[in-house]
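Hey all, quick one. A colleague (J.T.) asked me to put the magnesium ion job into the tracker so the inputs and the C-alpha cells live in one place instead of scattered across chat threads. No bug as far as I know, just bookkeeping. Sequence used:
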Amino acid sequence: MAELGAARPLMPVEEALARLLDLAEASPILEQERVPLAQADGRVLAGALVSSLDLPPWPNSAMDGYALRLADWSGEPLTVSQRIFAGQAPAPLLPGTCARIFTGAPLPAGADCVEMQENVEVLPDQRVRFAHAMHAGQNIRPQGQETRIGDQVLDAGMRLGPIELGLAASLGFAQVSVVRRPRVAVLSTGDELVEPGLALGPGQIYNSNRRVLCSWLARLGCEVIDAGILPDDLPKTRQRLGELTHVDLILSTGGVSVGEADFLGIALREEGELALWKLAIKPGKPLTVGHFHGVPVIGLPGNPASTLVTFALLTRPYLLRRLGVAKVTPSQFAVPADFSWARPGDRREYLRGRVEQGRAVIYPNQSSGVLRSAAWAEGLVEVLEGRTLAEGEWVNFIPFSELLG
Ligand code: AMP
Ligand code: MG
C-alpha cells in the first residue's frame, strides 16, 4: 500500500545499492600496509599475489608405494634400491630397480610411475612383484600441477580468509599487502537510550544497535570508533559530528524516521550534504546518506531489525566496496517457503527465518522492533515487492553466515 503523503515512489533496493556502490567507488580507501599472514584474516588484499614458485616444486608421489621406470619392468619382480620419505632428496633411480616411496616424497630422476603399496606383493627376498597393469605418470603429482611461476593466484580486492591465507603460505609468502582498515564511527541516537549495566529510567531502553554494529564492523575488519549515545539535540549533534573528522564513515542509527527529531539530517543539511532515501525495503525504509564536512555519513533506521537489515544489505557492501572488494553481495539460494504470504507489499521484505528440512520457516513476530527474531533466525528470507506466496513457492534465502563476516 502506498503511504499517505508519500511524494516520491520508494527507491528499489537495487537502486539504493547501486547508488551506494557508486559513492563507495568515488571515495576508495587506497592506503596499504604489509602485515604478517597471522594478522591478515578478514583483510582485503591490496595487490595481486603472484607466485614465484612452481607448486609442487618437483614431481612427487601421491601415494605410499613404489616408484619405477615403466620401461624397466618386464613383469619380473624388482629390487628396492632406495627408500624415499617426504623431505628427502632422492638419488636417481638405479636402472632395473624400484624405490620405496611415501606420499609427498620427491620422485627420483628416471622414475615415471608410482604403484600404490596395496597393489604389490613384497617377496620373502624383499623384491617387489607388481601385480596390476600400470601406466606412465600414475600416482605422480607433476611439478607445477597446482601453480606455475608467474601465476596470479589471488586478485587484488579479494578478502583473505583461512583458505586464501593457506594458499599464500603454500607459496611461501610470510606477509601480504592489505588495504588499511576503514575507520567507522558508530553513533547511537535517541534520548531513550541507556547502556547495559545502568538502571533503566522511565521510558528508557537499552542500546542494542551499538553492540550489533560495533561487533559486526569489527568482524568486517573495520577499526571501530564507538561515538556513544547522542541525545536528540541539534547543538550536541553538530558538536559530536564535528569531533569525528578523522573517520572514513559515520554510521548512525535512529532519528531518521521522525522528521522533527532528525537532528542528524538538519546538521548534515547545514554543514554538509543530505539525501533522505525512502527505500522499498522492510524492515527499513528511511535511510540518510550524505556527508558532514566531507566525512561520509550513513544514517540507519533505529528499529533493531531495520538497523540489521539495512546494515547487512546496504552498508556492508558499501564498506567492502570502499576497500576495493569486487564481490560485495551475499550468495543466496532458493528454497520453498514453508509459509504463505497473502499481502503483497510495496516494499521488499526480508523476513528473519531459517531453513528447516529444506524449507524456509519464518519467526512468528516480524516486527522491526524485534531483534529476537533475528537471533532465532539463520538468515533473511526475501519476499519481493508485489508478491504473494503459496506454501511451497520458492523464495531466496540469504544466510547470515554470508553477511556477518
Ligand atoms: P528512531 O529511528 O529514532 O525513530 O527509532 C525507531 C525505534 O528504534 C524506536 O523505538 C527507538 O527507541 C528504537 N531504537 C533507536 N535506536 C536504538 C538503539 N540504539 N537500540 C535499540 N533500539 C533503538
Ligand atoms: Mg530516535
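Adding what we noticed when we looked at it: The helical segments are 13-26, 162-170, 209-219, 234-243, 263-271, 304-322, 372-376. Residues 189-190, 254-255, 261, 302 surround magnesium ion (ligand 2) (CB under 6 Å).
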